[in-house]
Write a structure and sequence with these properties.
It is built from 8 helices and 13 strands. It has a 6-stranded antiparallel sheet. It has helices at residues 2-61, 173-225, 240-289, 296-320, 332-341, 385-402, 450-453, 458-468; strands at 79-83, 88-91, 95-99, 128-142, 145-157, 163-171, 328-331, 350-353, 380-383, 407-414, 417-424, 472-477, 483-490. Helix content is 47%, strand content 19%.
Amino acid sequence: MSGVRRAGSVRAKTAIGATAVVAVALVAAGVVVLLALRGSLGGQADADADAEARRVAVQIAAGTPYQGLELPDAEDHPVQVVDRDGRVLAVSDGLEAISGTGVPGVTPDPGAGTGRDDDDADDPEVGEVGDVGWRGEGRATVDGESAAYRFAQVEVTDPRDETVLVNAGASLEDRRSTVTTALWSMLAGLPVLLAVVAGVTWWVTRRALAPVEGIRREMAAITASADLSRRVPEPDSGDEVARLARTTNDTLAALEASVERRRRFVADASHELRSPIASLRTQLEVGVAHPELLDLPGAVADTVRLQNLASDLLLLARLDADEHPARESFDLGGLLRAAVGRRAGDRIPVDVDTDGLETDGAGTSAPGASGVEGAGGTARVAGSRGRVARVIGNLLDNAQRHARTVVAVQVRAEGAWVVLRVDDDGPGVPEADRERVFERFVRLDDARSRDEGGAGLGLAIARDIARAHGGDLTLTEAPSGGARFEFRLPRV
């Protein structure tokens, strides 16, 4: 249930996060739109006020008397004409109060004259209309109702060379109503849109996480059943979830193989230990009952065999645990000569070839021609001297066990590698079985006795040690037709 809650939490968090991001984006966009709309409508109001002020100013410049000016309806465009002294010359009909123009009066001065003397009625000269000198917001009261307006002021000179100011306004109420309507429309639509975003995100996330939930359920079933042969479903989407499923199945396959190897190892180890223990117990029981029949050499041989097998199993366990012993630099050629020297009396002689390598009898490299230790053709490697010696011993044991007349060993420094080759003139190993010999407890010759053939761990141990040192151990055919084992390590 905890896995389900976590999956649901992911869906909820994703939906909430997406909704929050969309909400912030929509609010920001709405603010920008409203500000732009308000600015655009304000610009239109300025243009209307400018046009109305100029229309009245043109009449004044043409000499139209102030009482005869054609002024617009005060509710739409309140107009106020004043002189520089603040005396009101003309206002729109119905205008009861005005603010924001600098002159609060709305009653024309009775002494306001005409724009042209009677004697100059035929004079074609007209006044001059100036530019808009001021814009601003104010209020006007018409028929008892006060409203906001955008005012523009135009300076005009009449034919008598008197300068007056025309203040004309454009209503802002309709424009503000438009902005308010847009705002409420956005506020009304925002929850609906956010609900749609949250629902779609929840649905999409649920579909996206459905394969993950399937993987979780199958992994829980595998854990409960301990059946590592089962696999999680792999979706065909080819996305990250599909790759996760494939990686999970690869991990399960590797885990299954590891568990199977360990199971076989335990079974084989138990079988291999059972024989020498049973034989040793039988001999000891016979010796207790009949001391004269005790086979002491056989008991010692079984004990030694049991000791060697226990040592091999312990070393394999250490290799599987990736245990790293102390590393040192040493000469592989010298280590080989020391190992061969201890086999001087063996049935099958070992011929060692280290031509071209600079070694001394102590198993260390002698200085090269340049006077630097390890220069030129030395065969120095780094690692555990004891484990590398174990590889050499296992390879020599295996070669002597199968050789007919001689075992040939050579060490060469080849570029960045030091290569040790062990050849025998025995029957060789078929190509199809050359990898199987490195498996644990594998003996190709089933007719061989365990005493002669060992437990089948020597080559497996040798390869594991080689790879733990950054090298490798391979099997090919020797020039004599027998087997050639090539042990390769990085050169120091």
